Automatic annotation (TrEMBL):
<protein>
    <submittedName>
        <fullName>Uncharacterized protein</fullName>
    </submittedName>
</protein>
<feature type="signal peptide">
    <location>
        <begin position="1"/>
        <end position="26"/>
    </location>
</feature>
<keyword id="KW-0732">Signal</keyword>
Length: 81
């Protein structure tokens, strides 16, 4: 005689609960676009001072690479507008 004890049990609820929790988090569409961050405008005096300060740094200074990366991000933000 076959045992039917396994067939009469309820399926585990954990996967269903997990699916409901995950789907509940998705309240907005995936097509939403984040707003562009604000762009800080610098005066020509500030730009000249910054150029002079960077020019005084040794070529091996890491801040020069960081500023180059910042320039790329800054241009991307301008394109976002």
């Amino acid at each position: 005689m076959k045992s039917t004890a396994r067939c009469s049990r309820q399926p585990p609820a954990a996967p269903l609960i997990a699916m409901l929790w995950l789907s509940a988090c998705a309240t907005g569409g995936s097509d939403t676009i984040a707003p562009c961050p604000p762009i800080v405008e610098y005066s020509s005096v500030d730009m000249k001072r910054a150029a002079d300060e960077v020019g005084a740094l040794p070529e091996s200074a890491i801040i020069i690479q960081m500023l180059a990366d910042y320039a790329v991000l800054y241009n991307q933000m301008r394109a976002c507008r």
